[in-house]
Amino acid sequence: MTRHTTQPIDGQKPGTSGLRKKTSIFMQPDFLENFVQATFDAVGGVTGKTLVLGGDGRYFGREAAMTILKIAAANGAARVIVGRGAWLSTPAASNLIRQRGADGGVILSASHNPGGPDEDFGVKYNMSNGGPAPESVTSAIYDRTQEITGYLKLDAPDPDLDTLGESTMGEMVIEVVDPVSAYADLMKTLFDFNALRDLFESGFRMRMDSMCAITGPYAVEIFENRLGAPKGTVTHATPLPDFGGMHPDPNPTWAHELMAEMMGESAPDFGAASDGDGDRNMILGAGTYVSPSDSLAVLAANAHLVPGYKDGLKGVARSMPTSAAADRVAEALGLDCYETPTGWKFFGNLMDAGRVSLCGEESFGTGSDHVREKDGLWAVLMWLNILAVRKMSVAEILTDHFARYGRNYYSRHDYEALPVDLAETMLGDLRAKLGSLKGTQTEGLTVESSDEFCYTDPVDGSVSEGQGFRILFEGGSRVVLRLSGTGTQGATLRVYLERYAPGPDGLDRDPQEALAPIIAATEALVGIRARTGRTGPDVIT
Ligand code: G6P
Ligand code: ZN
């Protein structure tokens, strides 16, 4: 039977990055089927269309892929290009959609959230430009989930997703492709692989922690096979359904094994980690942590050294809570610099319109217009290429950068799982006094201005309100506060702290110490600890 009757299921509203739920919820009868049929309906059907399908290898991914193929076949799709084993990193899926001229793609991932039967699963639809569906599409999907009465699903045996090549399911062609090769080939067009091979041949030591998630096979192929890095350079290189129990989020808290190695006595020259689906990155040198905001600024300043960007950048964009370090580089290079709300999707229009080629976020996301997703391994290769050309260590590159542009000391403090009411009241109170803060003196700092960020997209004119609170202090320091849009438990308050030091003195302080006055002023103005009873943040990046 092809047509199955169903009824709407609650809780199918896609968030920042598709639909993310506990795996057990996705495994309920009809849950995935309803959502996928609603997605196909919302994009005008898939009859005659070509789609890309794959995910980060987490628990339930393969079964979900089988189901989606049967729904696509029954809905008349012409071809689905699937990564072998239902594997594709998010940037590799974005690349395949673009390279193969596909009409769209389905990515099976909950990004940096843990995986397994008791953890998270997710489904995301990407458009023909390779980027995540915009809000107009995700809300159409949601509307459709609320009125759905049936879905089409072919009654066919499970296809073989482990053998490369074409097969058919009904009228539809299933094309199983190597998940890695097209992506690795794309990287070869952007970076100087000869220089990188020489770098590794000269004894340069790197540690890549793929955190038992999807970048493992990509990193092994690129760093070890193609660039000659010693075997074992990539650790946790096999994607596992539960990520081996790891929480695949590349930050100092969750990538603690890598942190310990890089801060230890015999640290390699360079270290990096990526997340579940391979779009996030963390960059480290021996004894050195590079904040994502500084990473973006360094990449902007040095991009011309990398073959793919040798003619210069079109422009740079960062999310509002990301530090202004990149702005200083853009100003020096005469580049346009855009400040967008949190969320990679806001960069898509700017890239499609040819206004920017480099984008980054404080949340460990960096990327360029080579795809329409952020790209973890791309960021690692950017750094490697720059290190190879400049023949300096990560620490030396940072020191040199700060000496030239000054340093934007930066840190993010997260207060997780707060009662939603409490968090909302606290920010509501802040909203109420925003207008009266100007000129206020607190902890030796004077408020210069304060507002709630509102973004007008320069390409399509759409307006996004309520995108975070900003308090600017005289002298270039600021604090930004917003509630996370991706948390799954209660409310997560993110406090982004920034202080500019022009130099030449005071460029090598400990960020927490340099930011202490702003932390104290924030407590005086907002009363986070006083109101929540917490003694400090749960996560510091
Ligand atoms: C996802 C998006 C990022 C965004 C991040 C923000 O990872 O892909 O573009 O920066 O969420 O998360 P938050 O929890 O701060 O809303
Ligand atoms: Zn991710």
TrEMBL record:
What is an example of a Pfam family matching this protein? PGM1_C_vert_fung
Q: What's the family?
A: Belongs to the phosphohexose mutase family.
Q: Look at the named UniProt entry and state the broad enzyme category this protein falls under.
A: isomerase
In its UniProt entry, the species of origin is given as: Thioclava marina
Identify which cofactors the protein needs according to its UniProt entry: Mg(2+)
Question: What keyword terms does UniProt attach to this protein?
Answer: Isomerase, Magnesium, Metal-binding, Phosphoprotein
Catalytic activity as recorded in UniProt: alpha-D-glucose 1-phosphate = alpha-D-glucose 6-phosphate
Which EC number(s) does UniProt give? 5.4.2.2
Q: What is this protein called?
A: phosphoglucomutase (alpha-D-glucose-1,6-bisphosphate-dependent)
Q: Which domain of life is it from?
A: Bacteria
Annotated region (Disordered) at 1-20
Classification via NCBIfam families: PRK07564.1-1
Q: Which Gene3D superfamilies match?
A: Alpha-D-Glucose-1,6-Bisphosphate, subunit A, domain 3, Alpha-D-phosphohexomutase, C-terminal domain
